[in-house]
Amino acid sequence: MHERKLLDKILDKDNLDHAIKQVKRNKGSAGVDDMTVDELVGYMAMNKDEMIHQIRNRKYHPKPVLRVEIPKPNGGTRLLGIPTVLDRVIQQAIAQVLTPMFDKQFSEYSYGFRPRRYAEMAILKALEFMNDGYDWIVDIDLERFFDTVHHDRLMNLISRTIDDGDVISLIRKFLVSGVQIDEEYQETVIGTPQGGNLSPLLSNIMLNELDRELENRGLRFVRYADDCVIMVRSEMSAKRVMRSVTRFIEEKLGLTVNVEKSKVTKPNDPDMKFLGFGFFKDYQADLYKARPHQKSLESLKFKLKQLTRKNWSVDTKYQVERINQLIRGWVKYFRVGYMKTALGKIDAHTRFRLRMCIWKKWKTAKNRRRNLIKLGMDRYSAYKNSHTSKGVARTAYSWILTTTITNERLAKFGLISGEQHYIKVHT
Questions:
Q1: What is 133-194 written as a DSSP string?
Q2: Helix (H, G, I), strand (E, B) or coil at 5
Q3: How many CB atoms lie within 10 A of CB 320?
Q4: Helix H or strand E segment including 346
Q5: Coil, strand or helix at 68
Q6: Which residues sit opposite 150 in a β-bridge?
Q7: Whole-angstrom Cα distance, residue 19 to residue 55?
Q8: What's the pTM value of the predicted model, to 2 decimals?
Q9: 69 - beta bridge partners?
């Protein structure tokens, strides 16, 4: 490959335009310079030529990423780095050109952040291995993977495929751009910021070394980004693999395995969680099957609870739209799992909470009476019930609202049923 040829592809007008569109589509917060995605097009129209000139002459310096802490559902925090909008465009432009070059080198058992590959494909492959008799699981947890990647090792892997010095220099600049935490700048001597458009590709380049090692050993495994499960036939093999693979990850890749969270287990262990899924044994069919993990269900319930807060003074139509959006996205992600019964219970609870919200919004006895009559209750009952001393929750559970704000009425109003939506995507 000739010098600069790859950089020319990255800085090509169509490639940059596509990168700008993608960054706008992804939305996201502003970085350290406070520039928003809405200001991006105007800024690029005025400054694109200067930016390209700086990159070509190796004078472009990415700004530090804004470090924010995102709470994890199981406690602890995930460190997220938010690059500036402009740096996201450049990273996206690099990723668009490099992804096809590297993707063909990646393992067929790697599913995370790759074109036309999804989490559900990883789950189906894991189930296939489990049901072939490989039902002892080596669940390896990489400790703060994005924060512990060794720059020189990573750049060495990249330079085996890329021989354009300008591109390699630019990628390294993003790795060492530093972070800003509460107005304070810190250098980044290791790690790749989780949150950058280039980070998923860089993580796959690094962990492809692990995939190759596992393939060379003839092991069955499934990896999605830094989430990896290896499946073997016996507990003894599983313990042996855990020891030897941990040694490889720490000594050869320079990464850290979280010993407390890594474990040898069986698929139907309640603590076994992979990409939000749990597994169970259907003894009649003699097969392992997937379903949303209990923690994933709890997370959905919590989000629905937030969207049905009694004191959230928004229009009910908007509230229903938000609920529908959440349910559709959740069912789409978990559709390969069994969850009909769980969704039926969640639907019933959501309708109850929505009835509470509606009753609260009606506020006055006069308003409640008028609305109950409109929904078909006789005048006397409407008057009596509009003055009920029952609390909001008891009223929502009682016949007062279940016979007026019926399930059918809520459906006509637009509220979708998770259970029905799940059945629909399966037919």
A1: T--EEEEEEBTTHHHH--HHHHHHHHHTT---HHHHHHHHHHHTS-EEETTEEE--SS---B
A2: helix
A3: 17
A4: helix 340-362
A5: strand
A6: none
A7: 16
A8: 0.89
A9: 79
Do residues 132 and 231 touch, judged by C-beta distance below 8 A?
no
| Residue 382 CB partners (closer than 8 Å, separation 6+) | 368, 369, 372, 373
Kindly tell me the burial class for residue 85, based on how many C-beta atoms sit within 10 Å of its own C-beta (0-12, 13-18, 19 or more): buried
CA 379 from chain centre, in angstroms, equals 51
pLDDT tens-digit profile of 27-82? 888 888 999 999 999 999 999 999 999 999 999 999 988 877 777 655 666 667 88
Q: How many helices (H) and strands (E) does the chain have?
A: 19, 10
Q: How many residues does the chain have?
A: 427
Name the nearest CA neighbour of 63 among 236, 243, 152, 188.
Answer: 188
Instruction: Identify the band that residue 272 occupies on the pLDDT scale cut at 50, 70 and 90.
Output: very high
Q: What is the pLDDT of residue 1?
A: 41
Residue written as token pair 């597994």: 279
Q: For the segment 137-150, what is each residue's pLDDT rounded down to a tens digit?
A: 999 988 766 666 78
One-letter amino acid identity for 14?
D
Mean pLDDT of 340-360: 96
Task: List CB contacts of 409: < 8 A, sequence separation 6 or more.
Answer: 375
Spatial CA neighbour of 192 closest among 275, 285, 94: 94
Average pLDDT over residues 413-425: 93
